[in-house]
C-alpha cells in the first residue's frame, strides 16, 4: 500500500541553501523564528530550517494568478475532469476498494469523493510539486498580502519537521506550501493527518492509507453530511428568474422543485427540506447546478467554486455518471487579476458593493455584478460576459 515518493528522485542540489540577502526578508525570518520558538518549536529546528529558505519571486507571481480565479469555467473543468482522470479514478476505485470502504466507514465520506480530491490535487499521486515548502511559505509569509496566514503555516511546517514526519530535504510540495498525496497545508496536517497504516507515523507523501484516511477525517471534521451528495447539474424552466442564483440565496430543495427545476433527465428534483443554492459558473447560457451543504464542505478544502464543482463532477464521473448535459461556452472572456480588480473598483464606484478589491471573482463580486445587471435590464446571472465588460468599460 506504500507509494514511492516521486520527489525523492530529485537531487538535494535543487533545494535552496541560503536565504535571500535582503534586510527586509532576513528581518521577517528573524521575527518568524522568534514566534516559532514561542510556539514550542525547538530553537535548533527553527534555525536549521530557516537557514535553508530563500525568497522565491515565482511564488509571488503564481499567487497573483491562481487558475481557480482567473480561468474560464469551461477551460478549468476541461483541464480538471479529463477522460484519463476519470478512467484512472475508476481503476483506483477497484484497486483501493477495501481501503476506501474503511475510510467511508470511519468518516462517512464516499470513495468517489476521496478519489476526486486525490485526482485533482496530485493526479493520484503522480505529481506532488517540486518547491521547497519552507521557502514557499516564508516567501508568502513575508509578503504583505496574506502574511499572518502564511506565517502560521510556516510555523506549522516547522512543527512537522520537529515531528520527523518527513526529512527536511524531502519537504517538497506546491508553490503555496501544500504537501503530499492530498496536498494538505501544514496546519491541516497537524490537525487532521492520521496514521492509516499503523506504522506509527503520519506520512502523507509515501502512504496512500495515511493520505486517504487523513482526507476523510479532514472532510468529516469540516462537517461532511453522510448520505447526501455535493449537488447536481439541473435544468431550469423557461422564463426562470436568474436573480435567484448565487451563494447568498438558499432555498429548500422542495421550493426549487415547485419553481420548475428538474434534473438533467427532466424529472423534478426531490421534495426535501435539504437547503440548496443555484450556481451558474458560466452564466445563464452555461450549465446550472444546485449545490447542497456538502458543497460548502468542499469549499472548506479550497474556497474556489470552480474547484468544488470540479470535485463534485469528477466524483460523479468516477461513480459512472455521464458528462455534463450542458457544455459551458468555450469563448468566455479570460479575466486577469488586474481586470477583475478593475471590475471590482468600477462596480464599487457605481454603488454596487463587490467587497474588497482583491482580484478574486468571488460571491461578493458576483452579487455586485448581478445587482448591476438588474439595474441595467440585463440577465442577472452574475456572470462577467463581454456585454457586461463593455458596459463597464473594462478592457
What does this entry show, briefly?
This protein has 395 residues and is mainly alpha-helical.
Q: Count the DSSP helices.
A: 18
Are there runs of 5+ residues with pLDDT below 50, and where? Answer: 1-21
CATH homologous superfamily identity of the domain at 6-64 and 129-179: Bacterial muramidase
Gyration radius, rounded: 22 Å
User: How would you sum up the major sheet?
Assistant: 5 strands, antiparallel
Helix content: 40-55%
Determine the mean pLDDT. 91
- Distance N to C terminus: 52 Å
- Enumerate the strands of the largest sheet in spatial order, edge to edge or round the barrel: 4-6-7-3-5
CATH architecture label name of the domain at 6-64 and 129-179? Orthogonal Bundle
What general form does the structure show? globular
CATH C-level category of the domain at 6-64 and 129-179 = Mainly Alpha
Amino acid at each position: 500500500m506504500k507509494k514511492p515518493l516521486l520527489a525523492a528522485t530529485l537531487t538535494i542540489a535543487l533545494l535552496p541553501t541560503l536565504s535571500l540577502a535582503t534586510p527586509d526578508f532576513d528581518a521577517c525570518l528573524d521575527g518568524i523564528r522568534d514566534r516559532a520558538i514561542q510556539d514550542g518549536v525547538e530553537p535548533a529546528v527553527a534555525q536549521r530550517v530557516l537557514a535553508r529558505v530563500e525568497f522565491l519571486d515565482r511564488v509571488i507571481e503564481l499567487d497573483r494568478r491562481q487558475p481557480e480565479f482567473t480561468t474560464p469555467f469551461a477551460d478549468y473543468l476541461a483541464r480538471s475532469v479529463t477522460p484519463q482522470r476519470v478512467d484512472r479514478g475508476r481503476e483506483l476505485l477497484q484497486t483501493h476498494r477495501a481501503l476506501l470502504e474503511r475510510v467511508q466507514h470511519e468518516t462517512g465520506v464516499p470513495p468517489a469523493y476521496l478519489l476526486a480530491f486525490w485526482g485533482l490535487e496530485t493526479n493520484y499521486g503522480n505529481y506532488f510539486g517540486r518547491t521547497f515548502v519552507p521557502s514557499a511559505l516564508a516567501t508568502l509569509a513575508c509578503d504583505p498580502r496574506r502574511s499572518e496566514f502564511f506565517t502560521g503555516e510556516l510555523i506549522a511546517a516547522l512543527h512537522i519537521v520537529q515531528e520527523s514526519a518527513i526529512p527536511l530535504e524531502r519537504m517538497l510540495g506546491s508553490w503555496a506550501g501544500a504537501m503530499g498525496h492530498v496536498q494538505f497545508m501544514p496546519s491541516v496536517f497537524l490537525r487532521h493527518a492520521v496514521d492509516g497504516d499503523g506504522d506509527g507515523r503520519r506520512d502523507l507523501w509515501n502512504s496512500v492509507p495515511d493520505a486517504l484516511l487523513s482526507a476523510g477525517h479532514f472532510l468529516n471534521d469540516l462537517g461532511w453530511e453522510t448520505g447526501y451528495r455535493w449537488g447536481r447539474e439541473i435544468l431550469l424552466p423557461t422564463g426562470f428568474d436568474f436573480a435567484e442564483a448565487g451563494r447568498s440565496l438558499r432555498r429548500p430543495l422542495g421550493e426549487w422543485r415547485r419553481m420548475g427545476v428538474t434534473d438533467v433527465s427532466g424529472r423534478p428534483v426531490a421534495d426535501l427540506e435539504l437547503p440548496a443554492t443555484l450556481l451558474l459558473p458560466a452564466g445563464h447560457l452555461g450549465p446550472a447546478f444546485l449545490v447542497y451543504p456538502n458543497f460548502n464542505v468542499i469549499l472548506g478544502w479550497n474556497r474556489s467554486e470552480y474547484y468544488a464543482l470540479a470535485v463534485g463532477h469528477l466524483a460523479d464521473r468516477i461513480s459512472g455518471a455521464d458528462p455534463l448535459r450542458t457544455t459551458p461556452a468555450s469563448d468566455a472572456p479570460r479575466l486577469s487579476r488586474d481586470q477583475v480588480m478593475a471590475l471590482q473598483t468600477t462596480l464599487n464606484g457605481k454603488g454596487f458593493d463587490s467587497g474588497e478589491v482583491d482580484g478574486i471573482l468571488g460571491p461578493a463580486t458576483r452579487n455586485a455584478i448581478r445587482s448591476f445587471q438588474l439595474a441595467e435590464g440585463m440577465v442577472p446571472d452574475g456572470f462577467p460576459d463581454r456585454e457586461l465588460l463593455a458596459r463597464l468599460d473594462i478592457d
